[in-house]
Design brief:
This protein has 276 residues and is an alpha+beta fold. Helix content is 23%, strand content 23%.
């Protein structure tokens, strides 16, 4: 069973990681890049992920670290999202499409595609990097509500460049569409969206899940920007893209742990990050 102690330690690790990437945009970008790989959002959701910026997502006015396990009740209100480029040379564009999608728990993918909880076109960047999200949405924001028997679901917030040639097809050209599963990759390609410029995720569960799957933590000390101390000023390179040739669906043993082992391993990771 997924214990309260385990959830507390996982959340504490996310907090420690956030504290150690503060004021280093390049490190933040590299960290979320690695987290998408470790959480199997690449390739479960995206074939690759090469962010140019990082998102700061706040629920109830409180910034939340990427990967945090949130109670359903804490996700009811529409979040506030701020974007920060990796460095001053990054050009993000002027218009964007924003989505929040749920590909399911690790090892149990949603079919035929992720569940669409939020989809908005015509997003712009306002003062201080805060995203200005139009009230007219293709799918209005809907809070997570995973199956109570499932392990924690992953909820990814993604931001794509929206070029002038953007032309959504079918029902997703019209506002007021319900929360439902859809083919995300088909939507992106058929509508002509540009690349994902930033992403973020959290996890959510409604009960004690049987045989929880825990992703490995990102050790920020292994990231190039940590070794450099501060962002170098060069643009984020595609060589940092995290791709994966295999999904955990056929090899869960490589990322699944017994609760006691998980507690010990995550606790050790917390202390190693907190005291270096």
């Amino acid at each position: 069973m997924l214990t309260t102690s385990l959830l507390t330690i996982l959340s504490a690790f996310a907090l420690v990681r956030a504290q150690n990437t503060t004021n280093n945009p390049q490190l933040e970008v590299q960290s979320i890049d690695a987290q998408f790989d470790n959480s199997y959002l690449v390739p479960d959701l995206l074939a690759s992920f090469d962010p140019l910026a990082f998102l700061t997502v706040s629920y109830g006015g409180q910034p939340i670290s990427a990967g945090t396990l949130l109670p359903v009740n804490d996700t009811q209100a529409v979040p506030t999202i701020t974007i920060t480029p990796a460095n001053s040379s990054v050009s993000l564009g002027d218009l964007f499409t924003l989505a929040m999608v749920d590909p399911g728990a690790i090892g149990k993918l949603s079919t035929p595609g992720p569940t669409r909880h939020w989809l908005v076109n015509g997003v712009t960047i306002g003062a201080n990097g805060v995203l200005s999200v139009p009230q007219t949405a293709i799918t209005a924001y809907g809070a997570p509500y995973p199956d109570e028997a499932d392990a924690p679901h992953r909820y990814a917030i993604l931001l794509w460049q929206q070029p002038a040639s953007f032309a959504p097809q079918g029902d997703l050209a019209n506002p007021g569409q319900p929360i439902t599963q859809f083919d995300l990759n088909s939507y992106v390609s058929s509508s002509g969206l540009g690349p994902v410029v930033a992403g973020w995720y959290f996890t959510c569960t409604r009960g004690d899940a049987v045989a929880p799957t825990i992703t490995s933590a990102v050790d920020i000390r292994t990231l190039p920007a940590y070794a450099a101390g501060t962002a170098s000023g060069s643009s984020h390179s595609a060589s940092g893209t995290h791709t994966s040739t295999g999904s955990p669906n056929g090899a869960l043993s490589s990322i699944s742990f017994k609760p006691v082992t998980a507690l010990a391993g995550v606790a050790a990771a917390i202390f190693s990050v907190a005291f270096f």
